[in-house]
Amino acid sequence: MAVPTNLSTLFKDLALLYARTDIQYSQLKAVTLAQWILESGWGESDLAKNHYNFGGLKWRKEMTGFATRILYQANDGADYYCQFASLERFIRGYWRFIDRSPYTGWEERTDSGEAFIRFIGPVYSPSPGYVDRVLALVDEAQMLLDTVTEPVMAPLESPSLRGTVVLDPGHGGTRKVGGSSPNNAISASGIKEKTMTLEMALLVRDALQQTAAQNGYDIRVILTRTADVNVGIAERANTASMERANLFLAIHFNGFNKQTSGVETYIRARANGNVNFEQDEAFAWRIQGAVLGALRTYAPATRDRGVKEDSASGGGVLGVLEDRALGNVPRDHPCRACLVEIEFIDVPRVDRLLNTGPDARQVRRTLAGAIAAAMVEDLLADR
Ligand SMILES: [Zn+2]
To answer: CDD domains recorded for this chain (predicted)?
Structure first.
């Protein structure tokens, strides 16, 4: 057995973060990481990939504040599981999870990883041989913790960067919630905007975390939703204020008359009380340029519809960009925000480019990488 050569970036990021995290019983890091390897299949489970739940942790009310509850279809039927907003929250959430009555007593068994897992293992999973399967993975887990920290020594002169970004995949679910419609545009081939926004947000998240790991940046990435559920407009923006985010990016795809096309990015208008208009504008142009550049690599004629202000009168005010909800007031405004409409997916040519054509997957990855790079650039510029 060895660490898989094609180990996902996500799981490497988890191991790296865990290696760097101070926990009370550092001698238990390898055995707990071994547990997460087993539970998540080296980070390949949907629970891990979509909800940062590497431990197969079911929802318990004591997890409030550490996780949110999500209905999840596992191998052994649908049940409520924990959904974590970040890798950091999963790590803290795991230790919170075993700090509950069914596990009482483990703190007397912390001399070795083996003593610990022999105690909590049978409660954690009733499956016979569970403890032995975890123990068989401890060497790999230790190797991973050791190797993953090595590259950190390399970029000594790289700038240190800390930041929090919120990605907001537009729409979701099947019902209107708090002013947010479940879906708006539908692609020529029938793919819903809400599906595309979520997938793009997850790709941007992965790209951001990869950049952060490679450069030694500390970037927290939080999504307003990680599943096909709708979230109210104010609640989406409030995620930024709760997390004291530096950047908030709402991701949408457009649709109109099957002909109009192009990329456009919205910011809150001055007339609508934007307290950090210039900063929003600079951020929005970075996003607009990144999306345009990525799309033009594959579709050179992609139209630049520019950065636009949301409308001051009547309809068209974008609640998701409302400063107070984002945590911004005139004298303290940490969060730059914009809403990107990546392309008009009801245009058959655009649908082929993004969804059904031979390069569609690569186009979406390129797009996500460009968006992530633009966000990092904006964080670096505003240090
Ligand atoms: Zn939309």
So the answer is: MurNAc-LAA
